[in-house]
TrEMBL record, chain A:
Source organism: Lepisosteus oculatus (Spotted gar)
Annotated keywords: Cytoplasm, Cytoskeleton, DNA damage, DNA repair, Nucleus, Repeat, Signal
Gene3D superfamilies per UniProt: Leucine-rich Repeat Variant
GO BP term (any one): iron-sulfur cluster assembly
Residue intervals of the MMS19 C-terminal domain: 564-993
Pfam families, alphabetized: MMS19_C (PF12460), MMS19_N (PF14500)
Name the record gives this protein: MMS19 nucleotide excision repair protein
Summary of the function given for this chain in its UniProt record: Key component of the cytosolic iron-sulfur protein assembly (CIA) complex, a multiprotein complex that mediates the incorporation of iron-sulfur cluster into apoproteins specifically involved in DNA metabolism and genomic integrity. In the CIA complex, MMS19 acts as an adapter between early-acting CIA components and a subset of cellular target iron-sulfur proteins.
Assembly information from the UniProt record: Component of the CIA complex.
Domain MMS19 N-terminal: 55-316
From TrEMBL, chain B:
GO CC terms, sorted: cytosolic [4Fe-4S] assembly targeting complex
Protein name per the record: Cytosolic iron-sulfur assembly component 2B
Similarity-based family: Belongs to the MIP18 family.
Domain of life: Eukaryota
Keyword Phosphoprotein: no
InterPro entries found in the cross-reference section: FSCA_dom_sf, MIP18, MIP18-like
GO biological process, one term: protein maturation
KW Magnesium (keyword) present: no
MIP18 family-like domain location: 39-114
Key words of the record: Chromosome partition
Function summary: Component of the cytosolic iron-sulfur protein assembly (CIA) complex, a multiprotein complex that mediates the incorporation of iron-sulfur cluster into extramitochondrial Fe/S proteins. As a CIA complex component and in collaboration with CIAO1 and MMS19, binds to and facilitates the assembly of most cytosolic-nuclear Fe/S proteins. As part of the mitotic spindle-associated MMXD complex it plays a role in chromosome segregation, probably by facilitating iron-sulfur cluster assembly into ERCC2/XPD.
Annotated Pfam families: FeS_assembly_P
Signal peptide from the UniProt entry: none
Length: 1041, 158
């Protein structure tokens, strides 16, 4: 009983479903309600009705004699199929396909919906084998594609693409008929969206190996007629097809097969002759693309034509883009000819081609002061760099020619051009590196090349010397080319240039060359260059002490160049071991007072040491060397100098000068930051026990008084207390994993020093050191207690207006605020709020405003990532979002006298934000920044201008509202009394010309009149900016811009 | 220039560019006044583009430092330029570009004289007369085609 009841129930439901379906169909077809299609599709998807039932329900409409009713019926079926094509059975797919193929012959109003249906079927995985072919046959037979609308044509192409994806085997069985059908279908297509699809099909045909048969030329014709693409999308194009997309898609088709070569190459040669620059570029780039599939058989007949076109483009062009496209086409053409396999009976077309090039270019190399010498050299170099064979052949002709020309021309300018051309060939020779066993193409010319370069190095023209140094580098980089004696001679020549040549250009070229060569040949440079440099650095002042100050100055310059060169060549450990002792010896003798080294030279020595640390690769032995030798020696010297300073009979050592110590600190800091953890821990404990307890056991010469207390107050104490900058360099740059011993004692002594010392360098360094340690201190209660105590002290000190240590306390506050801000410590808000409140302080206000710049910018010597500090990436944004509203509010509510401090702080803050954040924040801040431009403080004006300048171009939207104010403020600043404000204002006015024309044109006349004034400015630098800006404003809205 | 047309002088002599003017301490000093000198005028015109070649007037030796004379106190400037070949058809255009550049870049007080180096062009007189005639210069700049070419010569090369 129960079974029967449920059966009847089911039947009732089915009947009910059937009625629902009929209703839906009725409402869609006759009632024209499109929404019913979606309901029907949902029904089919959820299994409420089957496709078969739908077809049955549609029955009457599909057989109606009214075409529009039939169309409506097919439309519903196609829509449903689009939704449910994944769930079709094989049988259903077959029946439906036969049905649709039949409908293709029906009335034209039905066709669009039929195509939709077929498209849906081709996406179905259930389409039985064989049907793909039959669909295509019916399509090609019954449809004339180009008389359809755009959407239907797109549908046809999608059907082809779908089938190519899933039924490649079947389509290939159609043979060339497929290609023929496709060619007919796209012939005359004009819509860019459809062209992208059509090009994709054509590309598939070529790349996936469909048979072209007799139709290669037809396929070429039907696609090449679009070349070169000339398409500029309408403004606000919703479809987003760009010219570049079309160009690239078509290029892939045209360069897709060697069988197009005989048609394509003449076309390219023809289009290269065009007047349109984009056509030239496209042709050259297409030619380059072709070379990856062509061989010499395709190219050989067209080589003379191609060459003369390429030559013309490079010789005559006014556009760098065309020139470089031409050169790279020549390069890849030559490479293609070099690599293609020869038949036994054909001649080597590479040789013929290179002969052509040589014939046309060679003689121009003999006229080094004519225009065509450069294009010729570039063409030859482009061809030579393509392969070893090409390079060999061209070098064999060009090198003797250049060598001979160099010797027959005597003017420096001509010789320099020839040498520069030669440099191009030597550098190119590296590019086409010889394979195993082949020797460098230059090896036959080693002897004459070397003598040419060495003689050029002794010429009097600095430009010639500089070029010769670069050629020398290029020769040295060729493996195995130069002999040992050549290298030694080279080192001698470079040493001479570095020490004896006054000219900046040749000296720095020589230094660069020495740097690259020393990395390859360290032994030669250690043996030849280092001793000469050392001798020069330590050679005493001129025998008779003359009154001639320029002689003294030039000796100083020579010494500094020598030290710079030492740094330049020291990238290998073997050289570092030779060069660093020399530099340390400079410091020693400067301290001892012998050798008459002045503070500036000592600073250079420190800079050289720093450069050496920077460029040394992180090798274990170098690290050890710095730990054992360099750091102890530097510390020892500094202490000796500080202790001797207390003695009044001898002059004070120059190592006590602030700038020397400031140069020495980065050497120590860089070296420490690179130490491996075990060495780092030892360095840390060494430094701490040295500064806290005066433990000097590590120093090389141990003749110091016991119980040295560097951090405690002493008479004449600044000499010793300033050494805290070296302590900072040591302990603040160690890796975070290294624990600093006795940290509490250290911190409390540093706090005391920074709050009560009166020597600015000492208390600032102490504050920085304190901040650096706090930044790395592990988080927790311990740190919090320490900081709370500190905050209390700072508060009470700053609140006492009479306190003599307010500036000191403020400095400590600023640095600790920075240390906490970087690591997102919760207490940092308390400290920054304190800073904000100081903006209204009459004594500390300006300092507090400048402090915001310090908070936002990276500091070099402490609290940076290089020193392994705790730095969150986004701290600037966070600080800005938290504090800019407070600043704005403070600005609005503060009295007139202190407003400028707020503006200054704000302008500092905005300036150092990352560009992206600036762009999003600036619209709201712009009014305030414009206010800052009229603030009388020059510093504020300058920092605001330099912040605005890069942003002017990216903010047309925000600017439109304020452009009036901006232009008038900028105009006013062009007559400011400070020269750099005038210059910055003029640069901003210049930048405005790159805004959209319609925004700035209204201001043109006024600005031109205003800019006439600074044209007569008394400073040349201002006039130069005014000329540039006015020139651009004249071009605005004028033809030919 | 485009492919088909032949240049009047396809392979001209090229001269070296002078370097940037070296910055002196006086120029950075707020208080010192820097007079307008020959080099400053030369720097204004040396980078003007040649209408035919992708080269500057300096590289073609059309303008030279020695042929520029300025007197800041009397507010006069005189520039001589040398066409690359005696029958160069671009001479007027080059002269016009130099003149316009100076008009735009110098204060009003200056009297600007631009002319061809004597004996270097076949129709020297005629060109000089055109360049000296204020009204003809103004009229030339009303012609939008001419203005376009002049502006192209004066644009910074991209």
């Amino acid at each position: 009983m129960r079974a029967k009841r449920s059966l009847t129930c089911g039947l009732c439901m089915m009947a009910a479903n059937g009625a629902v379906l009929l209703g839906l169909v009725e409402e869609f077809v006759s009632g024209q309600q499109d929404s019913k299609a979606a309901e029907t599709a949902t029904g089919v998807k959820t299994g409420l009705f089957t496709i078969l039932e739908l077809v049955e329900a549609l029955g009457w409409s599909l057989t109606s004699c009214e075409p529009r009713v039939r169309a409506r019926g097919v439309q519903l079926l196609s829509w449903v199929l689009q939704e449910c094509c994944g769930s079709l059975s094989e049988k259903e797919a077959e029946v439906l396909t036969v049905f649709y193929e039949n409908r293709l012959k029906d009335h034209y109003v039905i066709t669009p919906h039929v195509l939709q249906g077929i498209k849906a079927l081709t996406q179905s995985p259930a389409l039985p084998p064989g049907l793909a072919v039959s669909i295509l046959k019916s399509l090609f037979q019954d449809i004339h594609v180009q008389s359809l609308m755009q959407a239907e044509r797109s549908c046809v192409y999608s059907i082809l693409l779908n089938l190519m994806e899933s039924r490649e085997e079947e389509l290939k069985k159609l043979g060339a008929d497929f290609v023929f059908g496709f060619v007919q279908a796209i012939d005359g297509e004009k819509d860019p969206r459809n062209l992208l699809l059509a090009f994709q099909i054509a590309r598939n045909i070529l790349h996936r190996g469909y048979e072209l048969g007799l139709f290669a030329e037809e396929l070429f014709e039907v696609t090449s007629c679009y070349f070169p693409i000339d398409f500029s999308p309408p403004p606000n194009d919703p479809h987003g097809v760009t010219r570049e997309q079309l160009v690239l898609a078509l290029r892939e088709v045209l360069s897709g097969t060697p069988s197009f070569a005989e048609f394509l190459l003449p076309l390219l040669i023809e289009k290269l002759d065009s007047d349109v620059q984009s056509a030239k570029l496209d042709s050259l780039q297409t030619l380059t693309a072709c070379t990856s599939v062509y061989g010499h058989r395709e190219l050989k007949d067209f080589l003379p034509g191609l060459w003369s076109s390429l030559r013309r483009e490079v010789f005559q062009t006014a556009s760098e883009k065309v020139e470089s496209a031409g050169l790279s086409a020549l390069h890849s053409l030559t490479a293609c000819l070099s690599h293609s396999i020869l038949d036994s009976d054909s001649e080597d077309s590479l040789h013929g081609f290179l002969d052509l090039i040589l014939k046309d270019c060679q003689h121009h190399l003999c006229e080094p002061d004519m225009k065509l010498v450069w294009p010729s050299a570039k063409l030859l170099q482009a061809a030579a760099s393509a392969s070893y064979r090409a390079s060999y052949k061209i070098t064999a002709v060009v090198m003797p020619l250049l060598l001979e020309q160099y010797n027959s021309h005597t003017q420096n300018a001509q010789r320099r051009t020839l040498l520069e051309v030669l440099q191009g060939f030597t550098q190119r020779a590296q590019g086409s590196s010889p394979e195993e066993g082949d020797e460098s193409v230059l090896s036959g010319f080693r002897q004459p090349l070397c003598s040419l370069v060495f003689s050029a190095l002794t010429e009097s023209s600095p430009a010639l010397q500089a070029t010769a140094s670069r050629v020398l580098t290029a020769l040295g980089l060729q493996p195995g080319l130069l002999s040992e004696s050549d290298i030694q001679l080279a080192a001698d020549h470079l040493t001479r240039l570095i020490l004896r040549e006054e000219d900046q250009q040749s000296c720095s070229a020589a230094m660069e060359s020495a740097g690259s060569l020393a990395a390859l040949y360290p032994a030669a440079f250690a043996a030849r260059m280092v001793p000469q440099l050392k001798e020069e650095i330590f050679s005493g002042p001129p025998a008779e002490p003359t009154e001639d100050r320029s002689a003294g100055r030039s000796q100083q310059a020579v010494r500094q160049r020598g030290m710079k060169a030492l740094a330049a060549i020291s990238s290998r450990h073997s050289l570092i071991q030779e060069s660093v002792p020399v530099l340390l010896q400079v410091l020693c003798s400067a301290h001892a007072g012998s050798g008459s080294f002045c503070a500036e030279e000592v600073v250079s020595a420190c800079q050289s040491l720093q450069q050496i640390v920077e460029q040394s690769q992180d090798s274990e032995e170098t690290s050890r060397f710095f730990h054992h030798t360099v750091i102890p020696q530097l510390l020892g010297l500094a202490v000796q100098a500080a202790l001797r300073g207390g003695d009044s009979t001898t002059p004070r050592s120059c190592l006590t000068e602030e700038r020397v110590l400031s140069a020495m600190a980065p050497v120590v800091s860089q070296a420490c930051s690179r130490l491996h953890s075990e060495l780092a821990a030892r360095t840390a404990s060494m430094a701490v026990s040295f500064f806290l307890d005066g433990d000097l056991t590590f120093l090389p010469e141990n003749n110091f008084p016991k119980h040295l207390q560097l951090l405690n107050k002493q008479p004449d104490g600044w000499l010793q207390s300033q050494l805290v900058c070296l302590l900072m360099a040591c302990v603040c740059s160690l890796p975070r994993s290294v624990e600093v011993p006795q940290i509490d004692r250290l911190l409390s002594q540093l706090e005391e020093l920074s709050c009560t010392c009166t020597h600015p360098f000492s208390y600032t360094s102490a504050a920085k050191c304190f901040a650096g340690l706090v930044n790395k201190h592990p988080a927790g209660e311990h740190l919090d207690l320490l900081l709370q105590k500190l905050v209390k002290r700072i508060d009470s000190e700053l609140d006492r207006a009479s306190s003599p240590f307010r500036v000191q306390t403020f400095t400590l506050l600023l640095w600790v605020a920075k240390a906490l801000l970087l690591r997102y410590h919760p207490l940092s808000t308390t400290l920054t709020d304190k800073l904000l409140s100081l903006l209204t302080d009459s004594e500390l206000g300006p300092r507090a405003a400048d402090g915001f710049s310090l908070l936002m910018t990276d500091s070099v010597d402490v609290l940076s990532r290089a020193c392994h500090a705790h730095v969150h990436i986004m701290y600037r944004q966070r600080f800005f979002t938290e504090n800019s509203p407070k600043l704005v509010q403070g600005f609005n509510s503060s009295p007139k006298e202190t407003k400028s401090c707020y503006l200054k702080a704000l302008s500092h803050m905005v300036t150092s934000l990352p560009r992206q954040v600036q762009l999003s924040e600036l619209p709201t801040l712009l009014p305030l920044l414009l206010e800052a431009l009229s603030c009388p403080d020059r510093g504020v004006q300058l920092s605001t201008l330099s912040c605005l300048h890069p942003l002017l171009l990216d903010l047309p939207q925000a600017l439109t509202l304020h452009l009036d104010t901006l232009v008038s403020r900028l105009r006013a600043l062009t007559t400011s009394s400070a020269m750099n404000v005038r210059i910055s204002a003029l640069r901003c006015l210049h930048a405005l010309t790159r805004l959209p024309d319609h925004l700035v044109l209204p201001f043109r006349l006024g600005v031109l009149r205003a800019l006439a004034v600074p044209l007569d400015d008394k400073k040349r630098l201002v006039r130069r900016e005014a000329v540039l800006a006015r020139g651009e404003w004249f071009l605005l809205g004028s033809p030919g811009r | 220039m485009s492919g088909g047309t032949r240049l009047e002088n396809a392979n001209p002599l090229i001269f070296q560019r002078s370097g940037e003017r070296l910055l002196t301490a006086e120029e950075e000093d707020e208080e010192v006044a820097d007079p307008i000198d020959d080099r400053e005028i030369f720097d204004l015109i040396r980078s003007i583009n040649d209408p035919e070649h992708p080269l500057s007037l300096e590289e073609l030796n059309v303008v030279e430092l020695v042929r520029v004379n300025v007197n800041d106190n009397e507010s006069t400037v005189s520039v001589e330029f040398t066409p690359t070949i005696p029958h160069c058809s671009m001479a007027t255009l080059i002269g016009l570009s130099i003149k316009v550049k100076l008009l735009r870049s110098l204060p009003d007080r200056f009297k600007i004289d631009v002319h061809i180096t004597p004996g270097t062009h076949t129709s020297e007189q005629a060109v000089n007369k055109q360049l000296a005639d204020k009204e003809r210069v103004a009229a030339a700049l009303e012609n939008s085609h001419l203005l376009e070419v002049v502006n192209q010569c004066l644009s910074a090369r991209v």
